[in-house]
Design a protein that fits this description.
InterPro entries: HD/PDEase_dom, HD_domain, HDIG_dom, NT_sf, PolA_pol_head_dom, PolyA_RNA-bd, tRNA_CCA-adding_enzyme. It holds the Pfam family PolyA_pol_RNAbd. Belongs to the tRNA nucleotidyltransferase/poly(A) polymerase family. By secondary structure, the chain is α+β, with helices and mostly antiparallel strands. Among the domains are: 148 residues, Beta Polymerase, domain 2, CATH 3.30.460; 84 residues, Hydrophobic Seed Protein (Orthogonal Bundle); 49 residues, no CATH class. The protein has 24 helices and 15 strands. The strands form five sheets. A seven-stranded mixed sheet has the order 3-4-5-2-1-8-9. A hairpin with an 8-residue loop joins strand 6 and strand 7. Helix 7 packs parallel to helix 9. The longest helix is centred in the last third of the chain and has 25 residues. The chain is elongated.
């Protein structure tokens, strides 16, 4: 095993000396491998997850390490995988015995047997993840780099240790991981490796949607998600994973009238919003905001291309897509649906002559998500014309001012009716009935339309008036003030 440059500074944490001591006592070899080494060399901060390979039993080494630590942390053993994990000093350390793997074509779960460090590095997904640092007393801190991963780090290249067709066919999730690392690290995927992903794209069908979504989320959370989605598109993976998105691609022309390519526009929007938020679900909303445009696209000879109702259709598609991908069907999905449904609303109220009631309704419907909605709408401006770009952004500044003015005056965000259903029942001596709903809705509409202020006394007077119009009489001993 050739000695290379010493990387002892990467092993400054005291835990590594403890692992080294435990290694010596067990009579085996051990190495820290993968992401910790890669990220240290790249200067990406201090990773909290550490992978240790033992040439021998990883479980035995983990138990020995625990015994040497002052607080004797609990060792979690995963016998089926031959791994063990413990938490110490804010670190999560996983121990595995060095192994070699072989695969059945119908599964990404390998058949495993004990192996050498070389065998273990051979099974790694990429050369930059096969870098290992020795924790052995006679070579402590030495880098073991059989595939020139250091050179690939310097050249910013994603490359497989072995034949890429074998690497990707054996475990097709590695195709997603290659694209994810290229996006996160701003690396290029080596030419032959990229071709191999395209050749093996159909193999992604054996991967669970949960694992695919893990990688999609990491791509979406990158500084520039479009890099990953462009690669997913180029290799054909995106069409297999999210055909609803690739359906947006293309520009049609009829009678000299064209529309923009809504797929590439969408990727621009996702990049734009990523400059202003790290919130995953707002980024999902940006990715899906135009998803209803492909099925709603029509050509009208008088007005050209239309996408009527694409927001409503898109919101319905969000549910189906989340269900398909096994994304959470909870408040997060409803949040994305809501933003997709409302994504065009602020554009309408940018008009100088817009009424306060339109602004009140926008704030009422958006609730606490009004800021996120405005962030999405501003990200949706992708025009390359400087004058139009400035005009659209100025319009949205006006919208924000109107929202602030109306909100300060009328307080309709997360609106709660000043008069409750219980008070309506008591006032008119009613049992639960549709009249109560009619009166509550009427009060809400009157406030949103600006007919009455969002105040208790005005709402109560309106309730009494509406009740009388429905033929209801206030209960005895109740005057107009409710006393």
């Amino acid at each position: 095993m050739p000695k290379q440059q010493n990387y002892q500074q990467a092993l400054h944490h005291s835990i590594f000396k403890t692992i080294s001591k435990a290694t010596e006592e067990t009579g085996h070899e051990s190495y820290v491998i993968g992401g910790y080494v890669r990220d240290h060399i790249l200067g990406r901060g201090e990773p909290k997850d550490i992978d240790i390979v033992a040439v021998g039993s990883g479980i035995e080494l983990a138990k020995k390490v625990s015994g040497l630590l002052p607080h004797k942390p609990k060792v979690q053993v995963f016998k089926n995988f031959g791994t063990a994990m413990l938490r110490a000093e804010n670190l999560e350390i996983e121990f595995v015995g060095a192994r070699k793997e072989s695969y059945n074509r119908d599964s990404r779960k390998p058949m495993v047997e004990d192996g050498t460090l070389e065998d273990d590095q051979n099974r790694r997904d990429f050369t930059i993840n096969a870098l290992a640092l020795s924790l052995n007393a006679n070579s402590y801190g030495d880098l073991v780099d059989p595939f020139n991963g250091m050179k690939d780090l310097e050249n910013k290249v994603i490359k497989t240790p072995l034949d890429p067709d074998i690497t990707y066919s054996d475990d097709p999730l590695r195709m997603m991981r290659a694209i994810r690392f290229a996006t996160q690290l701003n690396f290029k995927i080596e030419k032959e490796s990229l071709k191999a992903i395209t050749r093996n794209k159909e193999r992604i069908k054996i991967i669970s949607n949960e694992r695919i979504v893990e990688e999609l989320n990491k791509i979406l959370l990158a500084d520039k998600p479009s890099v990953g989605f462009a690669l997913l598109h180029k290799t054909g993976l995106l069409h297999l994973i999210m055909p609803q998105l690739t359906a947006l691609e293309g520009i049609e022309e009829i009678e000299g009238q064209r529309h923009k390519d809504n797929f590439w526009h969408t990727l621009e929007v996702v990049d734009n919003i990523s400059e202003n938020t790290n919130y995953l679900w707002l980024r999902w909303a940006a990715l899906l905001h135009d998803i209803g445009k492909a099925p709603s696209k029509r050509f009208d000879k008088k007005i050209g291309w239309t996408f009527h109702g694409h927001e409503f259709l898109g919101a319905k598609m969000v549910y189906r897509l989340f269900k398909q991908l096994r994304l959470p069907l909870n408040e997060k999905m409803k949040y994305v649906q809501k933003l997709v449904l409302m994504s065009s609303r602020p554009i309408v109220i940018a008009d100088e002559n817009v009424t306060d009631s339109a602004v009140r309704r926008l704030v009422f419907d958006a609730g606490d998500d009004i800021e996120d909605l405005m962030t999405l709408c501003e990200a949706d401006i992708t025009t390359k014309n400087p004058k139009r770009f400035k005009k659209y952004h100025n319009n949205f500044k006006k919208v924000r001012r109107k929202i602030k003015e109306v909100e300060e005056k009328d307080h309709v965000r997360n609106f709660q009716p000043p008069v409750s259903g219980e008070e309506i029942m008591e006032t008119f001596d009613l049992k639960p009935s549709r009249e109560i709903g009619i009166i509550k809705d009427a009060i809400k509409e009157a406030i949103l339309e600006g007919e009455i202020p969002n105040e208790y006394e005005a709402a109560r007077e309106y309730m009494l008036s509406k009740g009388r119009s429905l033929g209801l009489t206030p209960a005895q001993n109740k005057d107009s003030t409710g006393n």
